[in-house]
């Protein structure tokens, strides 16, 4: 046995750094889509490693639904300062005010789907030609066939039947005017890999991921945090529970899980023992069997 | 230390490939309750009276409507010993293109043989592509042993047939295992019905196959991907060459040769992020600084003075044509090789290969979708390359159509 091989985390890190550098080399105006979730946080830290000692040569773009967890916003501003990186915010509220999109109504109303319009508008406004995201292939079945370099037409749409073949580590980022790419450097990571990497690299994460006391209601098997944006149904009684979040999405639709995990080690134990996927707590994926595929085709993350 | 093993599977509708993948995910507890519930629900909706594990691997709506898989899908599972990435290539007409794609990043290929049918045309195709793409390891799974009463003679005959055929291929490491993916014999758990089989289960083979030597650690190659120049007060003179090591081992103090310029220098430091490291080897992404200030840019290759890639404009390549639109001699295309992109013209189609019989077809005028052929190209500037046999990174390339920007072919340099 020789010593010249990498652990799976080091190999995934090397692959992601390669992809991030390739984006900067091949595109004129790349950006990193930052959601405040652990995946985009890991992506930001990988970007720092990729260009050290230079600063990250692209901005973080946050599509702000206006329905954020306050903890996400605190963390975002801290991170931007920590990494000395530029922040660009695209506001869903502005898209609503301008009449670009119409707010959903009803009990399960969410701004999640509205983000797509704001995202595409932001990409067009700043003329970004590559938008990197923290999506992983293990998250959802429509993502299992996504490329590292995913081509989007001038309407921002994804055509799953007409993807470019992607071989070895040779990425083809050529495009026509007006088209752009979505790039997913951590495609090959699983939820567990992300947590193990956060542990290995001591990456600070938002407090939402750790256990805390919160007022929640139980709806369709998910625990939703009470907030100004959550319309209660008759008979729904908010109660205080010790919970944490596995993903950080739009506040009214991101479900919490009951948990006592207050350290990364305990979170990893919990993820290892979990019998549900992290997106199992996301109401937006449950709308139909192909909810994610349909949103992706129209230009969702 | 947990390692990563990437493997590819290929097969047609009925050979049990989806069931095998479902079995590996299910028995290694990589399927979650909500995924299983979703699959149970759609099995019911379709009127099946069993849970169809293959629904786990059929991702897209358009595919489910047609009941076929149109693209390579990637699956993940882990055991306490290793993390696995499966490149799951479907087996219909576009099969060659997808199999080549899935094989390009794999350390290992799983070949499924139906115990009732023995070696069929597809077995030859899968195996040939695995050998063409230089996948270092093959595991041949003789599946559906439950349907041949777990008979040793059936298995032995298939193993013998496969060995006599595979002696023509360039694959050094081939293992065999008799399994039933449907019932789970010898996949994750040992079968109680095949006491005559003394070998390991499939999962044990996947966990223990020796992959440390799959990368080339002899011939040092560092394709420069990006030049890092912070232009800040703290790092005023810093000039770092970022890239992923494609072969060999680099250490601070090593004498190096930069191609194509021919400049020589010494490695000063090697960084991974902020940390200085003692050595860099494939597949590490690092930043290298050199002792001398020389002009190096993206696409250059840093190698050793006594061991460096070839440099030439006329190159022989085995290609797989991957586009609907055929091509012919004199076609003008772009080639992307390591981090370089240059114009190229197709000078000659030397022969096409019938991948079922491995016979050469001479005098071919066109390359069609899924054709495999040996061609000669002439590039506008010299490429610095190795043969694919020697190095899968510096020996591989893709061809791009300049009008549509599509990737139209993959190539292995001869």
Explained architecture:
The complex is a heterodimer of chains A (301) and B (414). In chain A, the strands form two sheets. Chain A has a six-stranded mixed sheet, with helices on both faces. Chain A folds into two domains: 195 residues, Rossmann fold (3-Layer(aba) Sandwich); 83 residues, no CATH class. In chain A, helix 1 crosses helix 2 and helix 6 runs antiparallel to helix 7. Chain A is built from eight helices and ten strands. Chain B has three domains: 206 residues, P-loop containing nucleotide triphosphate hydrolases (Rossmann fold, 3-Layer(aba) Sandwich), CATH 3.40.50; 83 residues, Translation factors (Elongation Factor Tu (Ef-tu), domain 3, Beta Barrel); 104 residues, Elongation Factor Tu (Ef-tu), domain 3, CATH 2.40.30. In chain B, helix 4 packs parallel to helix 5. Chain B is globular and about 70 Å long. The mean pLDDT of chain B is 89. Chains A and B meet through helix 1 and helix 2 of A and helix 2, strand 2, strand 3, helix 4 and strand 7 of B. Chain A: One of its GO terms (biological process) is sulfate assimilation.
Q: How does the SSE layout of this entry go?
A:
The complex is a heterodimer of chains A (301) and B (414).
Chain A: H1 8-26, E1 30-33, H2 38-51, E2 60-64, H3 70-83, E3 87-91, H4 92-97, H5 115-126, E4 130-132, E5 149-152, E6 180-183, H6 191-201, E7 212-219, E8 222-225, E9 239-245, E10 255-258, H7 264-273, H8 291-297
Parallel strand pairs in A: 1-2, 1-4, 2-3, 4-6
Antiparallel strand pairs in A: 5-6, 7-8, 7-9, 8-10, 9-10
Helix pairs in contact in A: 1-2, 6-7
Chain B: E1 3-10, H1 17-27, H2 33-45, H3 61-66, E2 73-78, E3 82-89, H4 95-104, E4 108-114, H5 121-132, E5 137-143, H6 152-166, E6 173-178, H7 202-208, E7 221-228, E8 240-244, E9 249-250, E10 255-259, E11 264-272, E12 275-276, E13 280-281, E14 285-290, E15 301-303, E16 310-321, E17 327-328, E18 332-337, E19 340-354, E20 359-361, E21 366-367, E22 372-385, E23 396-400, E24 407-413
Parallel strand pairs in B: 1-3, 1-4, 4-5, 5-6
Antiparallel strand pairs in B: 2-3, 7-8, 7-15, 8-14, 9-13, 10-11, 10-15, 11-12, 11-14, 16-22, 16-24, 17-21, 18-19, 18-23, 19-20, 19-22, 23-24
